[in-house]
Amino acid sequence: MPLPCARCQSPLPAWELAGHDVAVCTHCRAANTVRAFPAALIPPGAPAPAEFAAEGEAACFDHPTKRAVALCRQCGRFVCRLCSVEFGAAILCPSCVAAGSGQAKSANLETSRTLYDSIALIAPLVALAFWPLTLVAAPGAVVFTFMKWSQPISLVRRHRWRFVVAVIVGLVETALWVWGAIYMVAAIRTKAAV
Amino acid sequence: MTPAPERYRKLPGHRRGILRGASVWMAGDHLLSVKSYRVREEYKRFQFRDVQAIVVAQCPRFHISTRSLLIAFIWLPASGVLSALTPEWYRTAMWLVAAALVCAWLYVSFAHSCRCRILTAVSSDELPSVYRTWTARRFLAQVGPRIAEVQGRLEGDWFEAVDTCTIGPGVPASNPPSTAGKRSIWSAAFVALLFVNSVTMLLTLHSKVTLVLWLASLLVLAEVVTMVPIFVQHYRGILRPGMQRLAIATVVKIGLSYYAAVAIMSALSATTPGMDRAATFALPPYVLLRQIDAWVDLGLAVVGAALLLRSEYSE
Question: Which residue in B has a C-alpha nearest to residue A43's C-alpha?
């Protein structure tokens, strides 16, 4: 399919793309700003020609008839063009990637992360909406923070300030509970003495 | 040896919602699209060498960010306090500021919003964080040169060559999503009820007649009744998500308004015991609440009308 409209995904006509900064979609009339790159002109699905290993040449570990083009950074096996998996500057073999250990256990493989710092912060704050829950949520947030402090947080955020705020909020709420309990006990004792 | 973690640089645009958020980050050789669900993040990477095109289409987007909600939450108690302490003209000025802010949001949502897609040979993904045109311009200005650095630039009559190539995952051209943008009799009735309810409330703000309050309650009930088929029709694919979101916003507004009314009534009963229930409806805090309720309803009705006007009739 030629370049699609970002709104309705109908193809944008070539005459709209020619010489204009903005291409108007003929289906939804949306004005599209297009930045196309050379990868768009590469014909799809053309497999690389088979590169067979000649006599005396290094061959792929998994495909002994194919010529090796690289070395797995982790296990050192030879890999052919088909087997080489790129991670930035490093090349790994499919076995190391599947095992997901060592260098292959890179952030580049992760597709999701649980944000423990956000959980620790949200719990005592949301509990405020129904304050008796803070009796559990506040100390829970403090304990949870200490348990999960060393766990990886967001892939893009580098600060753990949510953990710090969660501890402060949790401690303040716990202190208020303690103060309330002491106050009530003192009030009951005073009433009993009178 | 564990490799050093990739350093990411944030790119222009950040979608901040109550439950969901999104942003795009740039690394040495790829873009990282981050979708955030408060306690979880999902990542998708786009290698610079794989990006075929980035397309930005101008279209209305009605996103209520957490910042605008924060402004509303600051404004509501501020207006309540000021209405009790300051002269009439100050209150009017506050309302004018609120109206100007709503108008500005509507204008920006209609005229300066967009949808951004990034296309590779196997995917066509929307970047939800790029939803304003000025953000899209800054985004393209930063990302375009970086991709061109890796791939080079398209020269000459590239658009003719592109016309014969397959870009993106190859959705059949003859099958555009034509079902989008439909409306039903229920959605029209729902929007009409929102209008009627808001106008009725604005016209009867200072009324002490119980019948008027009953009428308002009936209109709210009718709104709720029309919402049920809207949810069903959205589930069946007859209605676009916009109308369903409007119905959800209305449900949330009805809930908040109900709890606020109960709180105000309780406070008034506590401060002035023995007061006639009908008389409390004409007191300033309750009138202010109804005023806010009416204007929010009117805003929702305007958004609903906009959704209806830009779609076709389905029945």
Answer: B165
ipTM above 0.95, yes or no: no
* Token duo for residue B182: 């439909």
Q: Does B252 touch chain A (CB under 8 A)?
A: no
- Alpha-carbon torsion (B169, B173, B175, B178), positive or negative: positive
Using a CB-CB distance cutoff of 8 angstroms, which residues of chain A are in contact with residue B40? 112-115
Pairing of the two strands B124-126 and B114-119: antiparallel
Contact A10 B173 (CB under 8 A): yes
Q: Which among B49, B115, B152 is the nearest to A7, CB-wise?
A: B115
Contact list in A for residue B154 (CB cut-off 8 A) is: 36-38, 40-41
Amino acid letter for position B121: A
- A14, B56: Cβ pair inside 8 Å? no
CA A112-A34-B152 angle, 5° bins: 80
Question: DSSP assignment of B153-212, as one string?
Answer: ---SSHHHHHHHS--TT---TT---TTTTEE-HHHHHHHHHHHHHHHHHHHTTT---HHH
The dihedral built from the CA positions of residue A177, A180, A186 and A189, taken in this order, carries a sign that is: negative
Paired with A81 in beta bridges are: none
Reported as a single tens digit per residue, the pLDDT across A65-113 is 888 888 888 788 888 888 888 776 678 888 888 776 655 555 566 788 9
Task: Name the pTM for this structure.
Answer: 0.67
Q: Which residues contact A24 (CB under 8 A, 6 or more apart)?
A: A16, A30, A31, A32
Taking residues A114-142, report their average pLDDT: 90
Phi first, then psi: what are they for A53, rounded to 5°?
-80, 130
Burial class (CB in 10 A: 0-12, 13-18, 19+), A157: middle
How far CA B52 is from CA of B49, B88, B301, in Å, comes to: 8, 59, 41
Count of positions (residues) in chain A: 194
**How far lies B249's CA from each of A107, A146, B16, B75, B296, in Å?**
38, 38, 17, 19, 10
Find chain A residues with C-beta within 8 A of B177's C-beta: 8-9
Q: What are B93-132's pLDDT values in tens digits?
A: 888 888 898 899 999 999 999 999 999 888 889 999 999 9
Q: Which of B252, B272, B270 is nearest to B260 (CA)?
A: B252
Q: Is B2 exposed, middle or buried (0-12, 13-18, 19+ CB in 10 A)?
A: exposed
Query: How far apart are the C-alpha atoms of B42 and B128, rounded to whole Å?
Result: 13
User: What does chain B come to in residues?
Assistant: 315
